[in-house]
């Protein structure tokens, strides 16, 4: 008998902010494409043991506003709503255990402040057991069939998960997919790099990387033959390159190793940088 966990619904976190409402509108557009219910969730800021009285009128107001926005006078979407005890990051991670996807508003802190004081958006993105989309409200709320889904490819297990979800999103959205692999002299495989090669022709390495990227995507292209795929090999760090690609994308997908915020700041977490600076929603994939 299968013990696989059944995942259902797209969960949108609602905290009363404009960013959360915009994220919910995007989540509704995605839920329609995936034919999944949209679950609007408000998490009480207080710890459940602190006591907050009977009823949560403010939370109900937040959920009412979100429901009006996501339905927009239509009745083509199943909407569920609920209130949960905090802390917010803990409650959302618990919900991620059964959700198909979490959608959160933008990080309310700067990247540096997230490192020092922490951020619920970063905490959830680093610990969730399902994909997390962090809203970056530049390109509009609606899923688009023209703007591409962009995915960072580096060969790691988490990158493979991001590729899988990116193909799935592109297929459901009817959108093209752009697979981006980056390389730099100091970060490429050691067999290719030495001080003597710094000023030599890198064409052999580029051909090797191009062949590797094509091979990495071959199985997914067979599974999703209708998805138009563009392979892009870029010289430079993944953080800078993917930020540039986010300007024309409708969604950018990356893996997250779940590092704590302080360690991430030291090693340069690409996913954390995208959460704070990308120009489109960011899909964070982890092994759940």
Describe what is shown at a glance.
It comes from Rhodococcus koreensis. Keywords: ATP-binding, Nucleotide-binding. By secondary structure, the chain is of the alpha/beta class.
Q: Could you list some keywords that capture this structure?
A:
288 residues, alpha/beta, Rossmann fold, 2 domains, ten-stranded mixed beta sheet, 17% strand, globular
What value does the average pLDDT take?
Answer: 83
Q: How much strand?
A: 15-25%
End-to-end gap: 20 Å
- Radius of gyration, in angstroms, nearest whole number: 20 Å
Molecular shape: globular
Number of helices: 10
* CATH architecture call of the largest domain: 3-Layer(aba) Sandwich
Segments where pLDDT lies below 50 for 5+ residues?
48-54, 110-118, 263-268
What do you see in this structure?
This protein is an alpha/beta fold and 288 residues long. The two termini are 20 Å apart. It is built from ten helices and ten strands. It has helices at 18-34, 57-71, 88-96, 111-117, 120-127, 157-173, 203-223, 238-245, 261-267, 270-277; strands spanning 10-13, 38-43, 79-84, 101-104, 132-134, 149-152, 177-183, 229-235, 251-255, 282-285. It has a ten-stranded mixed sheet, sandwiched between helices. The longest helix is centred in the last third of the chain and has 21 residues, at 203-223. The chain has two domains: 9-105, HUPs (Rossmann fold); 145-288, Rossmann fold, CATH 3.40.50. Mean pLDDT is 83; it is low at 48-54, 110-118 and 263-268. It is globular. InterPro entries: Rossmann-like_a/b/a_fold, Universal_stress_UspA, UspA.
């Amino acid at each position: 008998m299968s013990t696989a966990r059944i995942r259902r619904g797209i969960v949108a976190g609602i905290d009363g902010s404009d960013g959360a409402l915009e994220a919910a509108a995007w989540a509704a557009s995605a839920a329609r494409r995936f034919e999944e219910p949209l679950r609007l969730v408000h998490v009480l800021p207080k710890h459940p043991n602190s006591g907050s009285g009977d009823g949560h009128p403010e939370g109900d107001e937040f959920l009412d506003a979100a429901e009006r926005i996501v339905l927009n006078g239509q009745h083509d979407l199943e909407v569920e709503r609920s209130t949960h005890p905090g802390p917010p990051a803990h409650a959302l991670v618990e919900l991620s255990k059964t959700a198909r996807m979490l959608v959160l508003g933008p990080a309310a802190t700067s990247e540096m402040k997230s490192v020092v004081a922490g951020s619920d958006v970063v905490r959830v993105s680093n610990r969730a057991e399902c994909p997390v989309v962090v809203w970056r409200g530049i390109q509009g709320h609606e899923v688009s069939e023209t703007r591409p889904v962009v995915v960072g490819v580096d060969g790691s297990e988490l990158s493979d998960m991001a590729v899988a979800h990116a193909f799935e999103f592109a297929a459901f959205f009817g959108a093209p997919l752009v697979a981006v692999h980056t390389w730099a002299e100091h970060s490429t495989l050691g067999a290719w790099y030495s001080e003597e090669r710094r000023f030599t022709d890198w064409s052999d390495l580029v051909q090797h990387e191009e062949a590797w990227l094509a091979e990495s995507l071959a199985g997914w292209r067979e599974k999703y033959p209708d998805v138009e795929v563009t392979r892009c090999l870029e010289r430079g760090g993944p953080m800078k390159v993917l930020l540039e690609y986010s300007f024309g994308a409708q969604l950018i997908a990356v893996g997250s190793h779940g590092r704590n915020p302080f360690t991430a700041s030291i090693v340069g977490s690409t996913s954390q940088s995208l959460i704070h600076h990308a120009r489109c929603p960011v899909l964070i994939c982890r092994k759940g």
